[in-house]
Structure formats: C-alpha cells, structure tokens
Amino acid sequence: MNDRDEYWMRRALANAACAERLGEVPVGAVVVIGDQCIAESYNTPIRSQEPTAHAEIQALKLAASRLGNYRLDDAELYVTLEPCMMCSGAMVHARIKRLIFGAHDPKTGVISSAAKLLDEPYLNHQIDYSGGILEDDCARQLKDFFKRRRLENQQKLKLKSSEFKQKKG
Ligand SMILES: [Zn+2]
C-alpha cells in the first residue's frame, strides 16, 4: 500500500458513505487515470431498481461516457469492497489497467476470496490488482451498516408484535 492508493481509497470510502445515507449497502468506487479522478460513484440498486447499479459499474459507465470510449486502458479502479462476478466482468470488458479494493468479501468477492476470476487463463485482458487497501476502514463501514440495519429490523419487529398484543388485548 502506498499514499496514493490510500488517498483514492479514502475518496471511494466517501462515496460509499453517500450510498449509506440513501439506505444502500455502502460501497463506493473511483476511476482514476494518472492523477485525475475521471469518475466516482456508489451503490444504488435499491433506489434505481437496477440490479447492475453496483458502484464499480456506475463509475465505469460514467468514465466511459466522459472519455467518449468504453475502453479505459489507462484507468485504475478503486472500490471499497472486493468486486463481484458482474463487476469483474465489466472491468475486463472496459480493459482497465489496475483494480484496487478495500475489504475482502469471502462470500461474493471473486478476485481473491470466493474465486480468482481475474487470474483465469482464458481472459484476453490481464488486470493488475491489489486488495486489502484500508481494509479495516472499509470493512468497518460495512459491518456498522449491517449491524445498524439488524437493530432497526429488530425494533420494527418489536413494534409490530406490541401492536399485535394491543389489538388482542
Ligand atoms: Zn458488483
């Protein structure tokens, strides 16, 4: 890890916080070329009713439209959580140069956890990758979110059951 990676990962974390404020799972992504941020985005599948609205896909789309080219040869993509199958595929199609992710995702992360998709020999494009950048911060943001959501759901359930008891009584 270097200062540069840490700098851009902090920016991805700030994007993830935007998703969290909207009630979405907090994942944020930033596309960088050289020292310039080309695009940044966050997870919004619930809000946009769009299963592909992951942070990475949205940032890649935005970067491609800004550059007028779907091939993002010199791009580096920073994302707070290890990418899923769909996003990894999109990165290969976009021909990005490098992927940098924060927290590992043992369930659906396919870079170095559940699978190693980018290492598959059948791929016609190789992407360099580094994982675990600011891992503690990235993981904490997600853990806190899920913890809070569990508590909120428990409270809703409690409210419902007390309403039910009141009706019965
Ligand atoms: Zn994804």
UniProtKB/TrEMBL annotation:
**Enzyme Commission number(s):** 3.5.4.33
Keywords, ordered alphabetically? Hydrolase, Metal-binding, tRNA processing, Zinc
Sequence ranges assigned to domain CMP/dCMP-type deaminase in this UniProt record: 3-130
CDD domains, sorted? nucleoside_deaminase (cd01285)
Cofactor dependency: Zn(2+)
Cited PROSITE patterns: CYT_DCMP_DEAMINASES_1, CYT_DCMP_DEAMINASES_2
Q: Does the keyword tRNA processing apply?
A: yes
Q: Which reaction does it catalyse?
A: adenosine(34) in tRNA + H2O + H(+) = inosine(34) in tRNA + NH4(+)
InterPro entries named among the record's database cross-references: APOBEC/CMP_deaminase_Zn-bd, CMP_dCMP_dom, Cytidine_deaminase-like, MafB19-deam, tRNA_aden_deaminase
Query: Which positions bind Zn(2+)?
Result: H54, C84, C87
Look up the domain of life of the source: Bacteria
**Enzyme superclass (EC):** hydrolase
| Cited function | Catalyzes the deamination of adenosine to inosine at the wobble position 34 of tRNA(Arg2).
Which family does the record assign?
A: Belongs to the cytidine and deoxycytidylate deaminase family. ADAT2 subfamily.
- Annotated HAMAP family: tRNA_aden_deaminase
The name this protein carries in UniProt is tRNA-specific adenosine deaminase
Which species expresses this protein natively? Piscirickettsia litoralis
Protein's gene: tadA
